[in-house]
Design goal:
27% of the residues lie in helices and 23% in strands. By secondary structure, the protein is an alpha/beta fold. Bound molecules: pyridoxal-5'-phosphate.
Length: 371
């Protein structure tokens, strides 16, 4: 991917691999003796899967989950040989040979996937590893209780398959008070009892913050590695891992009564100074943040004034010292004054969506965040 040079880019995204490692270690401590697998799907939630997974592998992580086979293929060459790569979205028809040859482990989510993987193992004349996902109450992916019964009543389905993990996924892990958590735990316990000796995993980041019975042998952590609040509410207990700074591209002084931006959804009520930055909804700064979100200049809050355009947005910088408003000077979009979760809350969404929409047009740097 071609990215702009950081000297001229409209915005600078800085990602701190050491902070991601610190978050990995803190989750690992919390759930020990359960172990932590890193969820690096969607390019590690937009932060760069190769860099993130590589850093975590150096820190000792040996299990990685992605959503698609191609994401696993891309990571295969950057990870150590003893690292396991799992494909959450399952074994797609036709992908059996690639999975087997590359040693990528499919998460088998349905009986037809079990049958195809077993048939492929027989064709190769060797056992193939697999994760089996059961649906404990999310109704998205995984074998139903009836599927599990069918599987266990005819164990030949699994001939040739070596189950390395039994997993399920929580629908409401970000809400510790949700009754669904205990219900899913009960269902998972019951289904898992049919597979004695197979390691188990139920929890994502939110589940890591639930009680010990939710942790089993492995926890699959995504958002908490990336600094998001596992319980969905700011402030996050995790260390921030990114900052996003945009450059001012133009400043204008408006008399009271001037309409700003598309639809004139903002009208200056007093003489107003508007700073325009070159980040818009095409960069993942969601249009829902129009007239709702903020940025910070010199530690001072500057509200987004008017609608966010595709490639730019306008900030009400009235009262900000002139010296901070020259073309090229920096505006904080994510940083010490405004967290990822703050932005998500303003946009009426979750940190996951803000992260995974971060623009390819930002210049990216990996290293410690500046204070
Ligand atoms: C995405 C995903 C995770 C990671 O969830 P976080 O909330 O980001 O920790 C874990 N398990 C499954 C099945 C997932 O799809």
């Amino acid at each position: 991917m071609i990215r702009p040079d950081s000297r001229i880019a409209a915005a600078l995204l800085r990602i701190d691999p050491d902070a991601i490692i610190a978050n990995y270690r803190s989750i690992a401590e919390r759930v020990a003796p359960a172990r932590v697998a890193a969820v690096v799907k969607a390019d590690a939630y937009g932060l760069g899967a190769a860099r993130v997974a590589g850093a975590l592998a150096e820190a000792g992580c040996r299990a990685f989950f992605v959503a698609h086979l191609f994401e696993a293929v891309a990571l295969k060459e950057v990870l150590p040989h003893d690292a396991a790569l799992y494909v959450l979205n399952g074994l797609q028809p036709g992908s059996e040979p690639d999975c087997a040859v590359l040693g990528i482990v499919p998460v088998l989510n349905a009986l037809d996937q079990v049958d195809r993987w077993a048939a492929h193992a027989r064709a190769l004349g060797r056992d193939l590893p697999a994760v089996l996902q059961v649906d404990s109450g999310m109704a998205r992916l995984g074998l139903s209780a009836a599927d599990v019964a069918a599987l266990c009543n005819s164990p030949e389905h699994l001939a040739g398959i070596r189950l390395t993990l039994l997993m399920s996924h929580l629908a409401c892990a970000d809400d510790p008070h949700a009754g669904a958590n205990a219900a899913q735990l009960g269902v998972f316990d019951g289904l898992a009892a049919r597979f004695p000796g197979v390691p188990r995993a139920l929890s994502n980041s939110g589940g890591a913050f639930l009680d010990r019975p939710f942790h089993f042998d492995w926890v699959r952590a995504g958002i908490a590695l990336y600094g998001g609040a596992p319980e969905g509410r700011a402030p996050s207990p995790m260390r921030p891992v990114l900052s996003l700074l945009a450059r001012i591209i133009q400043v204008r002084d408006l008399p009271a009564g001037t309409g700003v931006g598309y639809g004139h959804s903002f009208t200056a009520e007093r003489p107003t100074r508007i700073a325009t930055i070159g980040v818009g909804y095409a960069d993942g700064w969601l249009r829902a943040l129009s007239n709702r979100g903020s940025a910070f200049i010199g530690g001072r809050r500057v509200p987004i004034a008017g609608r966010i355009s595709m490639d730019s947005m306008t900030l009400d910088a009235t009262g900000v010292p002139e010296t901070l408003l020259t073309p090229g000077s920096l505006v904080e979009l994510i940083g010490p004054h405004q967290s990822l979760d703050d932005v998500a809350a303003d946009a009426g969404t979750i940190a996951y969506e803000i992260l995974t929409q971060l623009s390819a047009r930002y210049a990216r740097e990996y290293g410690a965040l500046l204070p």
